[in-house]
Design goal:
Structural class: mainly alpha
Helix content: 55-70%
Subcellular location: Cytoplasm
Family: Belongs to the eIF-3 subunit K family.
CATH architecture of the largest domain: Alpha Horseshoe
Strand order of the largest sheet: 1-3-2
CATH class of the largest domain: Mainly Alpha
Shape: elongated
Pfam families: CSN8_PSD8_EIF3K (PF10075)
Organism: Pocillopora damicornis
CATH topology of the largest domain: Serine Threonine Protein Phosphatase 5, Tetratricopeptide repeat
Order of helices and strands: HHHHHHHHHEHHEEH
Number of domains: 2
Radius of gyration: 24 Å
Protein name: Eukaryotic translation initiation factor 3 subunit K
Strand content: under 5%
Length: 216
């Protein structure tokens, strides 16, 4: 069903119809579909924001929030930045949208402890966004994977929003990390990821002669 809807919307966005405000109802419905079915279509969502930009009277705060939250689920990709650039300053100052931007700033700076705290204090922000918490955990896992060689299991739990017990062990297993006897987790050998690169510079005689002549 998701692929069928994606194809229908793709046809809708071809040519000049992409900027037809009469398509907004269908496109907004597609945003809701993405939210409740853990689907994603960046191109369609950018088209919605562009139509809001051209037709401010049609702007829907809830839809904009949903688009931004779906974009956050794609971190570390730059989807959120692309979406935010299409939202004018006045709408970014809207208290509801500002809540999402605040969360984005915490996540983009990898301040995961504060991000989870913020979500716990304002849980309604992501109500109905299917898969949001796991998407953020995947992003946090990506950051852990490129940052740490060994890390305390308790710290991983904190960075992943408080996963505990078997749920945490299963998450660690899926990431191909190894739980050690001392309570630490081996993530990866960062030194193995460092690759040396030989840089060879070639300077011909004519180039050197020109430099010497200019210096005289």
């Amino acid at each position: 069903m998701a692929e069928d809807m994606r194809e229908q919307v793709a046809q809708l966005l071809k040519g000049i119809d992409r900027y037809n405000p009469e398509n907004l109802t269908n496109l907004e419905g597609y945003v809701h579909f993405q939210v409740y079915n853990n689907a994603y279509d960046l191109d369609a969502n950018l088209a919605v924001l562009k139509l809001y930009q051209f037709n401010p009277a049609y702007h829907q705060t809830t839809v904009t929030m949903q688009i931004l939250l779906k974009a956050l689920m794609m971190l570390p990709n730059a989807d959120f930045i692309m979406c935010r650039c299409l939202i004018d300053d006045a709408n970014q100052q809207d208290p509801a949208i500002a809540r999402v931007i605040k969360l984005a700033e915490l996540l983009e700076t990898c301040n995961f402890l504060e991000a989870w705290k913020y979500l716990n204090e304002d849980s309604s922000l992501v109500d109905g966004i299917v898969g949001f918490h796991d998407a953020i955990r995947k992003y946090a896992s990506y950051v852990i994977g490129i940052t740490y060689q060994t890390i305390d299991k308790t710290h991983i739990s904190e960075l992943l929003g408080g996963l505990q017990g078997e749920e945490l062990d299963e998450w660690i297993k899926v990431q191909n990390w190894t739980i050690k006897e001392d309570g630490k987790v081996f993530v990866s050998n960062q030194e193995a990821h460092i690759k040396s690169k030989n840089i060879a510079e070639k300077i011909d005689l004519d180039s050197v002669a020109g430099i010497i002549a200019a210096a005289k």
